[in-house]
Specification:
Largest sheet: 8 strands, parallel
Number of domains: 1
Bound molecules: manganese (II) ion
Oligomer: single chain
Low-confidence stretches: none
Structural class: alpha/beta
Helix content: 40-55%
CATH class: Alpha Beta
CATH architecture: Alpha-Beta Barrel
Order of helices and strands: HHEHEHEHEEHEEHEHEHEHHHHH
Distance between the termini: 52 Å
Number of strands: 10
CATH superfamily: Divalent-metal-dependent TIM barrel enzymes
Mean pLDDT: 96
Shape: globular
Strand order of the largest sheet: 3-2-1-10-9-8-6-4
Length: 417
């Protein structure tokens, strides 16, 4: 018997069908974020990264053109099993030589090359207006600014992004999740906490009033606890965005697991929101002591988040996207480790005896529950993972890194930076 056949038999004994888990996972899209490839640089502005977020590190070989970024995304995706979706920021607009429009004037045509790229690869596209790294961010504020000119500029940007999201969905045939996150806030103690939030609320409302098909465009609002340089106040706090989503049908809450206090867990928040929202969205990341956006690893909280999506039968209600950026390591490896880790977490969750465990809890058999949950950690999961990778035509083990090393020698190291 092969290693997989043995593992399959072992899992069958506890009522888990590993073949079915593998087949199911192949159909579940996960969005890969373009911004790991160039440290959130984008193509539309030479402004340094700002808005409360920060990349650290200077690993050589980052993409500096759309062609390079696309080539790098292809390389990373070729090493990852599973169904992919592309996640773009508005700052990744591609202009013709000599052409430029500011963010309030962006049009679908500025993303035509991305659409062609996605269609050739049979992928949908998710989208994000870019409310940072731009001279119109005034005193750390965009949509919540008291300056009407500033606020108007960013509202027009948001509306342009709704139109572009509609274009993505129509072209690819896949709904586009459009996430609104702005780092608006104050470094020090504000005198007015409600005014900025009231303006932020009205700005959100204007943006989502832009005509769109709610079946094709899924506007989301993402919260945050604080950012670099805006430590004392964040307009889009958890209560703010959650309340907004709850009171605006068609608008989804988006939880980024780096955007809460370090002892809060998004795994616990997922089922809470599933009780109320038909759909929600996730940014999957790894915060080390703060919203550090480290590469996602196959670790406890990652596994726990995946379990909450899988065992609540919510794979078709939760839009999953990765969101991290580490400039200190090979960026293809960063993408690959992160994407593979979330795939492992989903597959692991699908290979647990979830119904049995739930039954033990409901029957108050907490001793048995602890024993079984601990024993489940030692099931031969690696054999199932290897089979999944084989059927997806990607390396099952660390040999994927040989491909990255080759790519670094042949492609990345030749980029003059
Ligand atoms: Mn995020």
């Amino acid at each position: 018997m092969s290693t997989y056949e043995q593992a399959k038999k072992r899992y069958a004994e506890i009522g888990v069908d590993t073949d079915a888990a593998i087949e199911k996972l192949k159909s579940i899209p996960v969005a890969l974020h373009c911004w790991q490839g160039d440290d959130v640089g984008g193509f539309d502005s030479k402004d340094a990264l700002s808005g409360g977020i920060l990349t650290t590190g200077n690993y050589p070989g980052k993409a500096t053109t759309p062609e390079q970024l696309m080539q790098d995304i292809d390389k990373a995706m070729s090493l990852c099993p599973g169904k992919k979706k592309l996640n773009l920021h508005a700052s990744y607009a591609i202009f013709e030589p000599g052409e430029f429009v500011d963010r309030d004037k962006l049009e679908p045509k500025h993303f035509k090359k991305w659409v062609e790229y996605a269609k050739e690869r049979n992928m949908g596209i998710d989208f994000n207006p870019t409310f940072f790294s731009h001279p119109m961010v005034k005193d750390g504020l965009t949509l919540s600014s008291p300056d009407e000119k500033v606020r108007r500029f960013w509202i027009e940007h948001g509306k342009a992004c709704i139109r572009i999201s509609q274009y993505f969905a129509e072209e690819t045939g896949v709904p586009c999740v459009m996430n609104i996150w702005a780092g608006d806030g104050f470094k020090d103690v504000p005198a007015d906490r409600m005014g900025p939030r009231q303006r932020y609320k009205e700005a959100f409302e204007e943006i989502i009033s832009e005509p769109h098909d709610p079946a094709l465009v899924k506007p989301c609002v993402e919260s945050k606890v604080f950012g670099i340089g805006v430590e004392s106040f964040t307009a889009g706090s958890a209560e703010f965005t959650l309340s907004f989503a709850a009171t605006h049908p068609g608008c989804l809450p988006l939880m980024d697991n780096g955007h809460y206090h370090p002892q809060e867990f998004v795994s616990d928040k997922i089922p809470a929101l599933l009780c109320f929202f038909p759909e929600l969205a996730l940014h999957i990341t790894r915060g080390v002591r703060w919203d550090s956006d480290h590469v996602v690893l196959f670790e406890d909280e990652t596994k726990e988040m995946a379990k909450e999506v899988v065992r609540n039968n919510a794979l078709d209600r939760v839009y999953m996207a990765l969101d991290f950026f580490d400039a200190s390591i090979n960026r293809i490896s960063a993408w690959t480790v992160g994407f593979r880790s979330w795939q492992k977490a989903l597959l692991n969750a699908m290979c647990l005896p979830n119904e049995q465990l739930k039954k033990l809890q409901d029957e108050g058999k907490f001793t048995e529950l602890m024993v079984m949950q601990e024993e489940a950690k030692m099931l031969p999961f690696s054999a199932v993972w290897e089979r999944y990778c084989e059927t997806e035509g990607v390396p099952a083990g660390a040999e994927w890194f040989d491909e990255v090393k080759k790519y670094e020698a042949e492609v990345l190291s030749k980029r003059g930076q």
